[in-house]
Every structure is written in structure tokens, then in C-alpha cells.
Amino acid sequence: MTATAAGPALTVVVTRLGIDGGMDRVVEAMAAALADRGEDDVQLVCVTTRGRLGKLLSPLVFAGALARCLVLGLSGRADVAHLNLATRGSVLRKALMERVLSLAGVPVVVHLHGANFDDYYAACGPLMQAAIRGLFRRAACVVVLGSHWQDFVTRIAGPEVMTAIVYNAVPRVAAATEREDGNVHLVVLGEVGERKGTDVLLDALSLLRGRGIGGWRCTIAGNGAVERFRARAESLGLSGLVTFPGWLDAGAAKMLAGRADVVVLPSRAENLPMSIVEAMAAGKPVVATPVGAVAEILHDGVEGRLVPVGDAAALADALAGLIGDREARRRMGEAAAARHAADLDSGVFIERLVAVWRKAAGRAA
Questions:
Q1: Which 8-state DSSP code applies to residue 223?
Q2: How far is the C-alpha of 284 from the C-alpha of 305, rounded, in Å?
Q3: What is the dihedral of CA 313, 316, 321, 325, to 10 degrees?
Q4: Quick check: do 3-170+345-364 and 184-344 share a fold?
Q5: What are the residue boundaries of the structural domains of the chain, listed by start?
Q6: Where are the alpha helices (DSSP H) in the chain?
Q7: Which pLDDT band holds residue 97 (cuts at 50, 70, 90)?
Q8: How far is CA 261 from CA 2, 91, 214, 218, 222, in A?
Q9: 317 neighbors 363 (Cβ within 8 angstroms)
Q10: What is the 3-state secondary structure (H, E, C) of 122-135?
């Protein structure tokens, strides 16, 4: 650990799944934002906890991650650890990592992800609930993605738990030039399935078609139940209007978002989805549901539209309004870009995290 003008340098151990999902994109955003700062006061050491080797071999990957954390801690090469937490297996992995890191004298910051972590906690048995509460209570800080999740942590673990709201973030990106086909391009980025509201969206698009509202195309990009919903789109007469390209890597997803006119995410459960943050970074209006922390960054009629969960008719109305009003799309897109610059830009994000890490390391001193 070396000293810099900004203060004592920190080495931060950060967990990643190694499967290029939403949490890994957050870690990539951390690394990119640190590089853009142009300072060497913080170094990230990424530790993969699951990887792409399948269920049989993933325990070996995790065992290697535990061993690496222990070595980094005992050798004094880790000042703080940042554990990205979701549901199910992630809870067990991070609880074990926290114990190992604590034994090695490394303070832990827990970063709560997971679209339905509150529902997951409520469905857990007493022992798992106690493990989750203990993880939050032992953490130097619990980073959450909005006040909804801050209230949840405080409610289950107590007001003495240190929390910090840090919204997900990405750098500002330039929007693509308008396409020549004249259609309004609706884009969905995320896992294809009921949780993301793919069924509701297809019903809404069917309503648009039934009302004779044309001039649009929709791309639903992501893994999951792609074939099932492609078949459903065909049964609704949408095969010429809706495409399912499947999973896209980060570069292709960013390019697709940049070419969108409206980004749509009618989810039933979310924390703070990266696809919405990326849309706002590109200056795109968003149509979404007020789940998780979404309503904290997206205000109805300002940066886009908020519609009730599961309401295909309301979603169709919101989409119809934007499809037919280019000026509204422009106005809401500009508001989305302004909101991104104020709270969702990578520079804002990383400075808030660095402050959390420094405070955590100081608490351990």
C-alpha cells in the first residue's frame, strides 16, 4: 500500500460472477471509472466466484476465490473487500467469503443487488434469514441501489447498520443517428421471461397492432425463454414486428441501446436495472414499472413513463403516446440524459464508492 496526494492508496478486492451478467457489468463500470479518474489511489483486484464451468465445477472456482481472498488478506495486500450480493447461492458464497475475509482482518462492504431480494428474504427459513442479517450487521457498510433497499436493510438488520445509496452507473454514450426506415424502435435489454415482463410487453404490442398503431418495431434482446416467447409473438401476429436476437455482449447491447428510440422494461421485480441506466446514458426515454429503485431515477412524464406492473393496456397507452410524439421522445430523452449526468454517471458513482471504501478501511484501523 503506497501513499498518494489523494490519501493512502487502497487495494479493494471485488467479487464478480464471471458470467457477464448485470453484476459483472457493474464491476466493469467500477474498473472503467477508476481508470478514467486518472489517479492511482485505488486498485481493484477482481475475484471470480462462479465462472462459466458449469454447476459441477463452479465449487472449485469458488474454493479458489476463497483461497485467494485469504492469501490477500493475510499478506496485507487487501485493504477492503467489496462483495456483490444477490439471492440464493450468492448469499452462501458471500457469507463464507465474509467470514474468511474477517478472519484475515479485511473489512467488508456488501453491495446489495438482486431484483427480488426482499421477497427472497421473506421466503427464507429462520437460519438463512439470520445469516443474511448477520452479514449485513458485520459489514462495515451495506451499499444499496435506492431508498427502497436502504429501508429494507434497516428494517431487517437494525438502524445501527451503516448503509450508503450508490446508484448503478455507466459513462455517457452518444446516441446513434436516426435510422432511415422511419420506424420507432422499441428496445428491451434483459432476460426474456415473466420477471422482466416479456409476456406483458407482447400483450401490449398486440394491443397496439389491434388498434392500428403502426410505425414501430421492437427488439427483445437477452437470454432466457427466448423460443417460448418467440412462439408467443408469432401466435399474436407480431412475428414481422418483434425480433429476438438472443443474448448480446456488452458492446452489442450498448450499440442496440444507442439505436433505440424508446427503451422498455415492464418488469415485475427489479433492484436498479443496468438497462435503464444505460438507456438514460444514451439519452433515451424509458417506459418501465415502478419496482425496486426504478421510480427514484425515472419519473413519469419526465425521463419517460411509469406504468403499473402487469398492466398491458397501460403499457400500450404509454408506448402509443411516445410512438406518435417525436417531440415527447426528444424532451424525455434530454431529461434522461440530464438525470444520468447528475446521479448515474460513472464519475459520480466511483467517487461515492471510493468514499465508502475509505471509510470502511478507516473503521478497521
A1: S
A2: 12
A3: -170
A4: yes
A5: 3-170+345-364, 184-344
A6: 22-37, 58-74, 89-103, 117-123, 126-138, 147-157, 198-210, 226-235, 250-259, 274-281, 294-297, 312-323, 326-339, 346-364
A7: very high
A8: 47, 38, 15, 10, 18
A9: no
A10: HHCCHHHHHHHHHH
This prediction's pTM:
0.86
Asked if residue 37 has pLDDT above 50, the reply is yes
Judged by average pLDDT, the poorest of 14-18, 99-103, 264-268 is: 14-18
Q: CB 123: neighbour CB atoms within 10 A? A: 11
Q: Angle, to 10 degrees, between the axis of helix 198-210 and the axis of helix 226-235? A: 20
Which residue has cell 467517487? 351
Class of the CATH domain delimited by 184-344: alpha beta
Distance CA 49, CA 81 (A): 13
How many alpha carbons fall within 13 Å on the CB side of residue 210? 11
pLDDT by residue (tens digit) across 98-128?
Answer: 999 999 999 999 999 988 899 999 999 999 9
CB 117 within 8 A of CB 94: no
For 356, the grid coordinates are: 465508502
Q: In the CATH scheme, what is the code of domain 3-170+345-364?
A: 3.40.50.2000
In a 3-state reduction of DSSP, which class is residue 341? helix
Please give the Cα distance from 212 to 89 (Å, whole number): 47
Amino acid identity of residue 197, one-letter, is: G
